[in-house]
Amino acid sequence: MKFFLCVIGMVMIVEGLPYFIFPEKMKSWMEKIIEMHEGALRWVGFTLMLAGLLLVYLGRR
User: Fold this and answer.
1) What are the pLDDT digits (tens) for 19-30?
2) Residues whose CB is less than 8 angstroms from the CB of residue 18 and which lie 6 or more positions away in sequence, other chains included
3) Hey, how many other C-beta atoms are within 10 angstroms of the C-beta on 26?
4) Number of helices and strands (H, E) in the chain?
């Protein structure tokens, strides 16, 4: 459980960095995301999940 909490904490840090460093840029990116087609967003999400799964596999190997 400690490892899981550390991983969640690190994800939150990495996810929060762009908002902290580039808030105005993140607003424009969010506007572009809102305009994207749902299928494209699903494809991006799926690709990111596969990349994360690959990283976890390689890290635990």
Assistant:
1) 999 999 999 999
2) 25, 26
3) 13
4) 3, 0
For residue 21, the enclosing domain spans 2-60
Residue 52 carries which side chain, given as an amino acid letter? G
Q: Which residues, 6 or more positions from 33, have their beta carbon under 8 angstroms from its beta carbon?
A: 41
Q: At what angle do helices 23-35 and 2-21 cross, to 10 degrees?
A: 100
Number of structural domains, the chain? 1
pLDDT in tens, 38-59: 999 999 999 999 999 999 899 8
Give the distance from CA 61 to its chain's centroid: 22
Are 12 and 4 within 8 A, CB to CB? no
